[in-house]
């Protein structure tokens, strides 16, 4: 299965020759969008797609931001976006703020803003893609689309090869240990454990890394709430707590439950702390590179037992 996925990825990064010619017809999730000329003023409403524009060296004039429950915008994008105006959140952008920027192209996430498509199209041609829900192959597809729009096709091959090298390194390390069952999620300030569902994009990525998400339920929000009793019933080999801006306080509330000491992953020092921004919030190509590197360095992939005093990513 892993060989097939790698082959699929490899097949997607055949070098593209020649610059795109305009008018250009772009096949997107909202149908074929015709662009009369190369866009110069792009507004992007999803972090994964912003991630890929960054890799292509294209800076948008406006962007959708995190909402107030998600913490800061992704760390790997912060330097790049520090002077890009916000236009509201990714799923509830301000039409007025977008219009003021006079964009000639709007790019967004199909699951977030399909309902706003008629209004957005009145401002500028709008392309909707699978950004946050795109698996690795889908992200390469997005990269190619964005490259054709911005005449940066010559960068695609190198970007994807670099990504695949990091991904291959993570897979190879994960295969050195036995397959592991996992619960992965974030904890609310009140101490509720929200684990990623089977249809969350992290689930197939975990499978690629020799891990199995024990949650089989699907959810529109890509997460389900689970009690400590539910964790005990699932009895995972490993637990991953996705931290919001590195905040451990919600986990301390969860850990205060006396049943937590009976959780096998806790007793065996297999509770890991990774970044919610990249595992549950954005899945662009660079974000996935950060994800793989974090999984390697934390010890999560090979089950390395580390003390909090020596590595803050594991307790």
TrEMBL record:
Signal peptide boundaries: 1-19
Keyword NAD found: no
Highest taxon of source: Bacteria
Principal location listed in the UniProt entry: other
Gene Ontology terms: biological process: iron coordination entity transport
Cellular localization per UniProt: Cell envelope
PROSITE patterns associated with the record: FE_B12_PBP (PS50983)
Pfam families: Peripla_BP_2
GO cellular component: outer membrane-bounded periplasmic space
Keywords of this entry: Ion transport, Iron, Iron transport, Signal, Transport
Domain Fe/B12 periplasmic-binding: 41-304
InterPro entries: ABC_transptr_periplasmic_BD, Bact_iron-sidero_bind
Family the entry assigns: Belongs to the bacterial solute-binding protein 8 family.
Protein name: Iron-siderophore ABC transporter substrate-binding protein
